[in-house]
Design goal:
This protein is α+β, with helices and mostly antiparallel strands. The protein is built from ten helices and 21 strands. The chain is globular, with a radius of gyration of 25 Å. 38% of the residues are buried.
Length: 504
């Protein structure tokens, strides 16, 4: 019979929790015990907490949890994006937090191709940012069924961006954002931010950690020798979160680190780490300073493809993300105020998702790529040329009665792609607040009898402006070069201008 222990909530003594007192999972600072039904865990700090630490956790499980519960999209954030602790307990002068268990999807169903060694282990991000684990020749590669495709990682990084955006909106900072504190599942395109109990409450509770190697902001690393009381000391905050977020997005999309290049500053590895990631940190793809460019001949064979920016440069992510990578790793690397916000990353990722094309090679491991705006587009991962014409739809908005202006947003068409309300109207924002109704497609594109057409499913005021014809629900319009189509005559409705690329 398993021994269970009962503990009572500090916040509400009428509430109690049980856990199985055996074989706890030992984390960095906590011992984690499962409830008998494995619905939640009770995680005890190994060392007693001081009054300030306790107060911080109490606020996280009460005030800030309440802010999410009473805000927009509470279910989305609490079920999908965070494992948020919801109570605080005490036993033998040790403080514990009560946290929902991880979803089943965040544990490996198969793990390695050839063994069960990591089956059932949690899917921390590092498994998916190291290229060797997906290399066909690597003995300990992950099973193909665990990896997803390139499009999977776009949705994962969108979810992470939304999570960071939410924390920052509440005035919080994560302080230790890294692939160790984010669980992901490429199969369901899911991401979940964990270790919420370490959040920084600005101007109230200082951070207790400086972060995880690879994700610590340069200003934190280069001042870490100073005392905590020194005014020149930089501690984790929202701006350092934004550095870590940019690193995470880059690593999920390109499976290499943006600052680990070929430059060696000191033969002492510890000193070199502090210099190369701190004071002298330099983007490995810096356009004008090549001193930290990756030395391809130094890469391990498992890393040779993804590890070499010459093969897959950051520009492969398209114009919107390229701009933000430059802001994050050139302009904002040593100037935190210039770093892109989580909201900017979310917007750029969503706009880029509209530029993505399926690869025509059924054997391509990534299956999707971003249109490179060339006259002969091809997949950068396998080199397969795009076959056939490619409709490019530029979105325009109504500036005044007579003037339509380009929106700096385009939609690349592929067979059986959907059109959504957020394409049709500026009034529908593609974010976590979308209703089920807003997520329903309103039209679709298909290649029909040798021509590209847009089928109107439910839009009531769609019009072929070029030919001055109404396009009623259930009918279709051919996408020809130069065609103008009004998607909606309602306020905020957009117009699309068609360009047919890749014409032979």
């Amino acid at each position: 019979m398993k021994k269970t222990v009962k503990v009572v909530s500090i916040l509400d003594t009428a509430k109690s929790y049980e856990y199985v007192d055996e074989s706890p999972i030992r984390g960095g600072v906590k011992d984690v015990y499962f409830s008998p039904e494995r619905e939640y865990v009770v995680a005890f700090y190994r060392n007693p907490l001081d009054a300030g630490q306790k107060e911080r956790i109490m606020r996280i499980v009460s005030i800030y949890l309440g802010n999410i519960q009473n805000g927009n999209s509470a279910d989305y954030f609490l079920n999908e994006i965070f494992r948020w602790p919801y109570d605080i307990v005490e036993k033998d002068k040790l403080t514990g937090i009560v946290v929902p268990v991880y979803h089943k999807k965040f544990f490996f169903a198969k793990g390695y191709v050839g063994s069960d060694n990591i089956k059932g282990q949690d899917k921390v991000g590092k498994w998916f940012t190291a290229p060797m684990f997906r290399n066909q020749q690597y003995p300990l590669r992950l099973d193909h069924s665990e990896l997803g495709d390139w499009l999977s990682y776009f949705q994962i990084t969108i979810n992470i961006s939304r999570g960071v955006k939410k924390l920052h909106q509440m005035g919080l900072a994560h302080s230790d954002l890294s692939y160790n504190n984010i669980l992901i599942d490429p199969v369901t395109k899911s991401a979940c931010i964990i270790d919420i109990d370490g959040l920084v409450v600005p101007k109230l509770f200082p951070p207790e950690v400086i972060g995880t190697a690879d994700f610590i902001a340069p200003e934190v690393l280069k001042t870490k020798h100073l005392s905590m009381q020194d005014s020149g000391r930089h501690l984790p905050n929202q701006k350092t979160d934004l550095h870590a977020l940019a690193v995470l997005i880059y690593m999920y999309l390109f499976r290499r680190h943006p600052l680990r290049g070929g430059k060696i500053w000191d033969l002492d590895s510890e000193k070199d780490e502090i210099i190369s990631m701190g004071q002298k940190a330099l983007f490995v793809e810096h356009p004008t300073d090549p001193s930290n460019h990756v030395k391809a001949d130094h890469l391990r064979k498992w890393d040779a493809f993804w590890g070499d920016p010459q093969k897959i440069p950051f520009t492969a992510a398209g114009p919107y993300l390229s701009e933000l990578f430059k802001k994050a790793f050139i302009d904002g690397l040593h100037d935190p105020i210039r770093r892109p916000t989580a909201n900017e990353w979310e917007t750029a990722l969503l706009k880029t998702a509209d530029l993505i094309q399926p690869c025509h090679n059924p054997e391509c491991t990534e299956k999707w790529y971003v249109f490179d705006n060339s006259s002969n587009p091809k997949c950068p991962f396998c080199g397969t040329q795009h076959r056939g014409t490619l409709p490019v739809l530029d979105l325009y908005f109504k500036f005044d009665d007579e003037v339509w202006k380009p929106e700096n947003h385009r939609l690349m068409v592929y067979n059986n792609q959907y059109l959504f309300k957020w394409h049709v109207s500026r009034k529908v924002i593609r974010n976590e607040n979308l209703t089920m109704q807003d997520k329903m497609p309103v039209g679709y594109f298909t290649f029909h009898e040798g021509r590209w057409v847009l089928v109107n499913q439910s839009l009531t005021s769609m019009k072929d402006v070029t030919e001055q014809k109404e396009i009623s629900p259930g009918s279709m319009v051919e996408l020809t070069n130069g065609k103008k189509i009004l998607l909606s005559a309602e306020e905020g409705g957009r117009l699309i201008f068609v360009t047919l690329a890749n014409q032979s």
